Amino acid sequence: MCLLVLAWQVHPRYRLVVAANRDEFHERPTAAMAKWPAPDDIIAGRDLRAGGTWLAMDRARRFGIVTNFRDLQPPAPDAPSRGNLIPNYLRNEAGAQRYLTELQSDAESYSGFNLLLTDSDALWYASNRANHFARPLPPGIYGLSNEFLDTPWPKLQRVRRRFDPLLRQGGEVSRNELFAILADPTQAGINDELPKTGVSAEWEQLLSSPFIRNEHYGTRCSTIVLLEPSGAVSLTERRFDSRGSVIAETEFTIPDDEWL
């Protein structure tokens, strides 16, 4: 994922609300969100090149999402895939705190990442570019792109200006409204300060919109997660081609006492 907003235990109807865009090169092969075959017991999309995922949920309603950290450090040629961070968490019964404690000693072997994990009790944030690797987060609304949590990049601020009021209204959250927020193609304005992450000024401008359209690189999918306190959950993934047109959508609506 390259842009996400998340509400944790702040809405009377939903324990967790996530709206996220995954940006990637269009040539990179990807499988749609689906129930993974045994022994995995998760719902996730799949990166068919490295085999991992960027967002997933398991039967216990544990959730994980990862973004790359855009910095000047080149990836190590033998670095493990960041796409395995979430499946590895969901493949065992450990809570988020224990998993991150065990991951910390190996975290520097990965290229830069941000990781958000939930379990039955808590939401945790971790980054192998932070001074302190992992910390629990209190109930609240958070945003993340390819820098540290809540870094006020123009694209994230733009999304937060629409997402935060929607969540604080307290009524039913519409997936269509969330998809509309994610579909904003507006790039940073002349008075917005663009980040300086080592790519060219032209690419910083291109990447400054919440929804990216480019023939080579852009928003490949948008995902909405709505998890109720009872355990009822809705997961919807909308996929796009290189022109930014919708090509397919997958939805899972699962009652509180069921799984696939």
How would you describe this protein?
The protein has 260 residues and is α+β, with helices and mostly antiparallel strands. It has one domain: Penicillin V Acylase, Chain A (4-Layer Sandwich). Helix content is 17%, strand content 33%. The protein has five helices and 13 strands. Strand 3 and strand 4 form a beta hairpin. The radius of gyration is 17 Å and the shape is globular. It starts with a strand and ends in a 6-residue tail after the last strand. The relative contact order is 0.19.
Question: Concise description?
Answer:
By secondary structure, this protein is of the alpha+beta class. The protein has five helices and 13 strands.
Strand order of the largest sheet: 3-4-5-6-7-8-9
Helix/strand order: EEEEEEHHEEEEHHHEEE
What's the quaternary structure here?
A: single chain
Number of separate structural domains: 1
CATH class: Alpha Beta
The CATH topology is given as Penicillin V Acylase, Chain A
How far apart are the termini?
Answer: 24 Å
Biggest sheet character? 7 strands, antiparallel
Q: What is the count of β-strands?
A: 13
> Helix segment count?
5
**Amount of helix:** 10-25%
| Low-pLDDT windows of residues | none
